[in-house]
Amino acid sequence: MAAGSPPVVIAARNVRKWFPIRGGVFSTKVGDVRAVDGVSFDVHEGETVGLVGESGCGKTTVGRLLLRLIEPSSGHTFYRPPPDVMARLEALYGVLNPYAEAQNNGGTLPADASASLHELDEIAKQYSLYRKKNRAMRDLRGKLQIVFQDPFGSLSPRMLVRDIIAEPLEIHHAGRRAERRRRVTELLGQVGLNPEHEWRFPHEFSGGQRQRIGIARALALRPEFIVLDEPTSALDVSVQAQILNILRHLQNEQRLSYLFISHHLSVVRAMSQRVVVMYLGKVVERATTDSLFSTPLHPYTQALLSAIPIPDPDLKRERIVLQGDVPSPAAPPPGCRFHTRCPAVMPVCSKVEPPLIEVRPDHFVACHLYPAEWSGAPASRAATLGTPLAESHDAFPELRPPEPLESEAAPSEPAPPEPLRSDADR
Ligand SMILES: Nc1ncnc2c1ncn2[C@@H]1O[C@H](COP(=O)(O)OP(=O)(O)OP(=O)(O)O)[C@@H](O)[C@H]1O
Ligand code: SF4
Ligand SMILES: [Mg+2]
After folding, report:
1. Where are the alpha helices (H) located in 255-378, listed in sequence order?
2. Which of 148, 150, 167, 319 is the least buried, fewest Cβ under 10 Å from its Cβ?
3. Which of 15, 59, 66, 261 has most ligand 1 atoms within 8 Å of its beta carbon, as the pocket-test mutant?
4. Given a cut of 70, is residue 117 above it in pLDDT?
């Protein structure tokens, strides 16, 4: 991102999660599911980063890793590294990344890389979530929250709403009992529920209302970063728009940062400032939302976007249908992981893994169609890259920010919080 951008809240670098596969009578390790295999991106203060990709590509695992809900196999997630530390990280990874592959294959690091590794370790001790001790991590938990897809499954059916929302406050000993009660009422108001709702159980609510309770609970400890894992996928369209409105309203009000995981590309476009596209555990493209949706560069992204329906019958877009199934993450294809399904595959693709390079300003892609020497290409080259997918936003009217809607058809539903401002107002 350009100089003068808001501070970085979360910076993932080379994060990996390999789940062991066990088999045989003695349950010995027979392989690994490479769910997340070296993912790097940043989330800035007040920003929404969308995370998209087919089922099983590792989105939820990335979300959990960024919150340290599961331990990584390797890599770091830095929490609030100051700008000078970010600059050092860029320089250090610039030295270390080229050697990482060699080291994975049993090679040794050269001397200059060892010094960089030592400096990285010192930074990690201070800023990496994965190096925090129990106590420090517990203190950070309130700042890092998650909202799940299934609001029913994530709320205890035996607890009153007031206790569900107050639970994180109690665990973290936040305030006295009376203060906690006041905070629960305040949180219910923030998500558009009434004070009397606190005396109900989760089954007494509609799906949208239950998701509001999940959001209120996530907000209880005044978080800075929230992973929204398909927060509206289980809801019908009108209720989806209400929940998205609430999330955006809260973001504007509290300067929250979101990782927004969704299959619904139209929603991702409306919600996010930047988008990360994953395939089989890897980031294949990463860009500002405008750049990604107007000029997707990776063949996989182009296929994903070509599947978005156009509501105007006069407008036609050729749909790219990918052949074959997604390969198993336990045995990913060598070279480019997408080569077994790519319509533009070349001989080099099955042999050499393409690095993720910046070929347009703030637009990164991992594909041999864009050679490494194009990294940091001049604007003239960048302007010629890719095939514009759509002439204008009008080709995707369903992508405009959700309008504030009528309240849900559920008992005692109050009006949702203030309508959101349109993109043009921001
Ligand atoms: N605890 C686990 N043990 C073993 N494998 C796991 C575990 N959790 C996830 N996986 C595997 O890791 C891969 C990525 O899973 P993940 O849930 O992150 O995908 P996803 O992109 O969120 O998919 P979806 O869109 O369906 O939610 C899958 O192959 C999954 O089976
Ligand atoms: S590297 Fe090759 S196989 Fe992979 S997306 Fe690019 S063209 Fe397709
Ligand atoms: Mg998931």
Report:
1. 265-271, 289-294, 299-306
2. 319
3. 59
4. yes
